[in-house]
Design a protein that fits this description.
InterPro entries: HTH_LacI, LacI/GalR-like_sensor, Lambda_DNA-bd_dom_sf, Peripla_BP_I. This protein has helices at about 5-20, 30-35, 40-45, 55-65, 75-80, 100-110, 130-140, 155-160, 185-200, 215-230, 245-260, 270-285, 320-335, and strands at about 85-90, 115-120, 145-150, 165-170, 180-185, 205-210, 235, 265-270, 295-300, 310-315, 345. It is α/β, with parallel strands linked by helices.
């Protein structure tokens, strides 16, 4: 270890002892005393003000971390009007494996190095989707909101646009008023999945869609129907189950379809759970995947990388979606931005 390293370790230990001796929660004044800087300079350095030299900002952050400094959010909110919180409203559902984890991973990367913290707000299917959003907005619990599973005439979007409250949604709507969003091209997914099945020799296609109330259900339906009409192949759209159905219900439904004389031989699955249900049903009927039954699934995790025989997949990058939503929301919070600059469509 060099003398410089020893010296820095000694200075660090000294600062930690000073903070411990204070016996109170570290404040901006504590950091100012340890660094020899003015309190206002420390405050601006922690806010990452570009007017403060990068070296000074890094030194202030290091000291703040060493002594366990945490900003007083109540005082910060009174002073700036901001909470430095981003709220992610999530619906728990099992169809998309790792959905929440991947979205949070991307959002965390977008917020890294900023003063913003991510707070998860759950929304349950037995309560109106607008309730948690209205609660956050009315009580100013966050500076921006991110939510998922949009509907064509989404009441959450209407409310937030009306009140000019910063938000990004994962999914689009059919509202006349343009709004910020990040979405995946589900039309292209269903279209190309159907074309792949037809090219593999499938003669009757089946698709399990999301619940009709969601916008991406319409996108998937449109893409699927465009492909089957272009090729003139037979098809069916699942009526008794959706992508939100329990995996057992999907498996039972597909099992019955495969027992029919005129069974589908090509399946499009909008998630890995429904794809596994199709594979289980095929196995139970002694049908061989890739010969008797063809399958294209949307992949959002590494699950199918380990599955044999190989499953045909189309990837949706949820971590990238989280990253894009975080960056666009920070941009919106930073000031007025044309809506067109706050929209992103992830393509295949």
């Amino acid at each position: 270890m060099s003398l410089d390293d020893l010296g820095e370790r000694g200075r660090r230990a000294s600062r930690e002892r000073s903070a411990d001796r204070a016996g109170a929660k570290p404040t901006l004044k504590t950091i100012a005393e340890l660094t020899g800087l003015a309190v206002t300079t420390v405050s601006r350095a922690l806010a990452d003000a570009p007017q403060i030299a990068l070296e000074t900002r890094m030194r202030v952050r290091q000291v703040a971390e060493e002594i366990g400094y945490m900003p007083d959010r109540a005082a910060q909110r009174l002073r700036t009007g901001r909470t430095n919180v981003i709220s992610l409203v999530l619906d728990p559902h099992e169809e998309i494996l790792g959905y929440a984890t991947s979205i949070i991973d991307g959002l965390s990367e977008a917020l890294r190095g900023t003063p913003y913290h991510l707070v998860i707000t759950p929304h349950f299917s037995d309560t109106p989707a607008i309730d948690p959003v209205r609660h956050i907005m009315r009580n100013r619990m966050a500076d921006g909101i991110i939510f998922t599973r949009t509907e064509p005439a989404d009441e959450r979007v209407k409310l937030l646009v009306e009140h000019d409250f910063p938000f990004i949604c994962h999914g689009r709507t059919e509202l006349a008023t343009a709004h910020p969003y990040v979405d995946y091209d589900n039309y292209a997914f269903a279209y190309h999945a159907a074309r792949r099945l037809i090219a593999s020799g499938a003669t009757k296609l089946s698709i399990i869609l999301p619940p009709d109330r969601f916008t991406f259900a319409q996108h998937m339906r449109h893409g699927f129907m465009t492909a089957v009409r272009e090729e003139g192949v037979r098809f069916e759209i699942a009526k008794d189950v959706t992508l939100d159905s329990k995996s057992d219900a999907i498996r039972d439904y597909v099992y019955k379809q495969m027992a029919q004389a005129d069974r589908p031989d090509g399946f499009i699955c909008g998630g890995e759970v429904s794809a596994m249900a199709v594979m289980a049903s095929a196995y139970d009927h002694d049908l061989e995947l890739g010969r008797d039954v063809h399958l294209v699934a949307k992949q959002t995790s590494g699950l199918f990388d380990q599955v044999r025989p190989r499953v045909e997949t189309i990837y949706e990058d949820l971590s990238e979606a989280g990253l894009l939503m975080g960056r666009l929301l920070l941009k919106r919070i930073g000031g007025p931005v044309p809506v067109g600059e706050l929209q992103a469509l992830q393509t295949l």
